[in-house]
Design a protein that fits this description.
Length: about 80
């Protein structure tokens, strides 16, 4: 049933892409809630540490956290670049 884990990983990570593309194209961050992305980074780091220390190295979850965290970091970068 790993397929559901990979679907979850892709769906959860891809949900950030439209906001990143919109911000990149318009170079406007007026309506962006930067707190959401900052908290997401903290959440992804915490989740990755929890999984690796308590569950074990689960590839699906770690890919999810890495992809989502990377998207969040990039969005924070864009926010401060275009602010």
């Amino acid at each position: 049933m790993d397929i559901f884990g990979w679907i979850y990983t892709v769906a959860f990570g891809v949900c950030y892409i439209p906001q990143i593309i919109k911000t990149w194209r318009t170079k406007k961050v007026d309506d962006v809630s930067i707190g959401l992305f900052q908290l997401s980074i903290i959440g992804y780091i915490s989740a990755a540490l929890y999984v690796t220390t308590n569950v074990g190295a689960n590839l699906i979850l770690l890919c999810n956290y890495a992809f989502g965290g990377t998207c969040s970091i990039f969005m924070v970068y864009l926010y401060y670049k275009y602010k």
